[in-house]
Amino acid sequence: MRAFEASARHLSFTRAAHELNVTQAAVNQQVHALEERLGVPLFKRLPRGLGVTDEGHALLPVLSDAFGRIEAVLKQFEGGHFHEVLTVGVVGTFAVGWLMARLRDFRQTHPFVKLRLLTHNNLVDPASEGLDFAIRFGADNWPATHNTHLLDAPLAALCAPEIARRLKTPADLACEVLLRSYRADDWTDWFAAAGLEPWTLNGPVFDSSRLMVEAAVQGTGVALAPPAMFVRKLQTGVLVRAFDTEVSTGSYWLTWLRSRRRAPGMRLFQEWLITQAGQPARSS
User: Fold this and answer.
1) pLDDT-based confidence at residue 68 (cuts at 50, 70, 90)
2) What average pLDDT is seen over the chain?
3) Which helix (H) or strand (E) element contains residue 95?
4) Do 14 and 4 touch, CB atoms closer than 8 A?
């Protein structure tokens, strides 16, 4: 099967023999033996090279995929250890605002678990994207996944210092540009918490809290975002809280498909995250 796969890929017994470090006669013999066993021709022997038959085309992608999977697993064995690769989709705000500062600790604690991180804006499909985990923001309303609570993240009004200086009461926000996220009710919920009647908003809409807060830092307007994810900007003073009022619209959760069996590396990553979050585990 390896002789056939290499020959079909190169359309040449000679190049396949070179790749497999055997003679051309050996490759020809192996392919012929496979054809006899299957009872069908896999190649058309042409005057100049090879052509793959319909039967060969049906077999080739299956073998290529299988050999690729085997090779990928074998590469995970290195230095007497099995190196497990975890693919984790992370909502961008959490990745930059919380996770990145802690990844060094995970690598030092679990050097044989290799993380592959992909960012998303809370619109994620773990199955189609091949994710082991997805870290997302919301209210634990994903029935297809197991969900472990990580962090609460109440929202507060954040802005540049020069804007904050002219805000005396929450009602003063009516004179400012209010930056909006894709969650349409965030400002409405915050107005209720602040004791205000909502008004029509016309500020720009962002699909990422990171972009929205960066716009706030640049003085574009006031953002509603979780201060816990923007600690460094708050500490340096480029971003300030306009008011103490907060509203909770969701939390950050570690999620994985209910149909997915957790590998050892997944368990280690989950336990590490819960420890780093410093909160009692809460799952569904």
Assistant:
1) confident
2) 91
3) none
4) no
Spell out a b/e string for 4-38, using b for 16 or more CB atoms within 10 Å of the CB, else e. Answer: bbbbbebebbebbbebbebeeeebbebbeebbeee
> Residue 70 is encoded by which pair of tokens?
């085997």
Cα 113 vs. chain centroid, distance in angstroms? Answer: 16
Q: Could you give phi then psi for residue 24, rounded to 5 degrees?
A: -60, -35
CA–CA gap between residue 164 and residue 157 (Å, rounded)? 10
98 to 90, 153, 222: CA distances (angstroms): 11, 11, 22
Q: At what angle do helices 13-20 and 2-10 cross, to 10 degrees?
A: 130
Q: What is the pLDDT of residue 124?
A: 85
Q: How far is CA 168 from the centre of its chain?
A: 40
Q: Residue 42 burial by CB count (10 A; 0-12/13-18/19+): exposed, middle or buried?
A: buried
pLDDT at residue 283, as a whole number: 57
pLDDT, tens digit, for every residue of 198-214?
Answer: 999 999 999 889 999 99
Answer yes or no: are the C-beta atoms of 86 and 126 closer than 8 Å: no
Residue 254 burial (10 A CB sphere; 0-12, 13-18, 19+): buried
Sheet of strand 240-247, all strands in order from the earlier edge strand to the far edge? 223-225, 155-159, 240-247
Q: For residue range 92-145, what is the model confidence (pLDDT) as tens digits? A: 999 999 999 999 999 999 988 989 999 988 888 888 888 999 999 988 888 999
Between the alpha carbon of residue 106 and those of residues 12, 100, 135, 212, the distances in Å are 47, 10, 16, 29
Question: Could you give all domains of the chain from N- to C-terminal order, each with its CATH number?
Answer: 2-75 (1.10.10.10), 81-150+253-277 (3.40.190.10), 155-247 (3.40.190.10)
